[in-house]
Amino acid sequence: MASIWMVVLAFLAIMFGCEGSDLRYKFYKKSCPSAEDKVKEMVERHVAKDRTLAAALLRMHFHDCFVRGCDGSVLLNSTANNTAEKSAIPNLSLRGFDVIDDVKAEIEKMCPGLVSCADILALAARDAVVAGSGGPFWRVRTGRRDGVVSQQNEALSNIPSPFFNFSQLQASFASKGLSAKDLVVLSGGHTIGVGHCNLFSNRLYNFTGKGDTDPSLDPTYAQFLKSKCTSLADTTTTVEMDPNSSLTFDSHYFSNLQAKKGLFQSDVALLTNSIAKKQVEKQMKGNSFFENFKNSMQQMSEIQVLTGTTGQIRRQCAFIN
């Protein structure tokens, strides 16, 4: 009998120990009721001065979630004893850290030690996309805790490369619990922002190692890209990922793909799989892309989150307490 009661008590301890640990809407409703409004207010203020922050913060959130989950680890600085995610090649061009730091500082004044950097980043990405590019509003459940580990090599091995083929992309997304549909829909985030020449110039000048151009590129588009990226050595020039529409969130990314104007090899890869190709076509119908993007972003923003007593609430986003 005693053993039965021990099992029951253990079950109750687990059940009640987890209560409040999971993500939920309005997590800070009682502890810091103005937190989400303050994030929105400050992000809108920054984005009003620089609309490119919409793509920058969206990308930062994506890169954070693909390494150790959405725990704010991408925000941590390197130390004398550790090279952090920020220093990994895929993250060297990330922007918007100052925005997150600014928001965090203001919220710390309001509610010290209560609102995580991971939650701030998840909310800021959403608010920036809405305010800066006219993108869809998706609901964000909060209650994330901040991670205390950030390693350069983990960023290199987890963030999908713009050189990936479809099988590599699918495996990367599947490892995070995301489907082929999520892969296509989230790739549509390339409707805003720019890409650096060195991430696609091999398609222009040396696609198969013989000084040739990728035949899957529209010839006119290829010539345009060559006029912007004049050599394989160019690592600083950027080009719009969605030509003439890089500040507006729309479904042009998918019509560009079908017109052979996908910028990265990973973009074009979506057309090499029958299931993904059908998803590309579906995103161009009515409001499908906006609705699907909301759903996929909600799912992505909850990858391997830390909740309850795991992790910590950082006082400054760039440093562990």
Please give a handful of descriptors for the protein shown.
321 residues, Peroxidase, domain 1, Peroxidase, domain 2, 2% strand, globular
Description:
The protein is mostly helical and 321 residues long. The chain folds into 2 domains: 23-158, Peroxidase, domain 1 (Orthogonal Bundle); 166-299, Orthogonal Bundle (Peroxidase, domain 2), CATH 1.10.420.10. The protein is 46% helix and 2% strand. It is built from 14 helices and 2 strands, in the order H-H-H-H-H-H-H-H-E-H-H-E-H-H-H-H. It has helices spanning 2-18, 35-49, 53-65, 97-110, 117-133, 152-158, 166-174, 180-187, 202-205, 219-228, 252-258, 265-268, 274-282, 288-300; strands at residues 194-196, 238-240. A two-stranded antiparallel ribbon has the order 1-2. Helix 8 (180-187) crosses helix 14. The longest helix has 17 residues, at 2-18. The termini are far apart. Mean pLDDT is 93; it is low at 1-21.
Q: What's the short version?
A:
With 321 residues, this protein is mainly α. It has helices spanning 2-18, 35-49, 53-65, 97-110, 117-133, 152-158, 166-174, 180-187, 202-205, 219-228, 252-258, 265-268, 274-282, 288-300; strands at residues 194-196, 238-240.
Mean pLDDT: 93
Number of domains: 2
- Which descriptor suits the 3D outline? globular
The CATH architecture of the largest domain is Orthogonal Bundle
Looking at how many chains there are and whether they match, the oligomeric state comes to: single chain
CATH class label of the largest domain:
Mainly Alpha
User: Can you tell me the residue ranges where pLDDT is under 50 for at least 5 consecutive residues?
Assistant: 1-21
Q: What is the C-alpha radius of gyration, as a whole number of Å?
A: 21 Å
Number of strands: 2
Per DSSP, what share of the residues sits in E-state strands of 2 or more residues?
Answer: under 5%
The CATH topology label of the largest domain is Peroxidase, domain 1
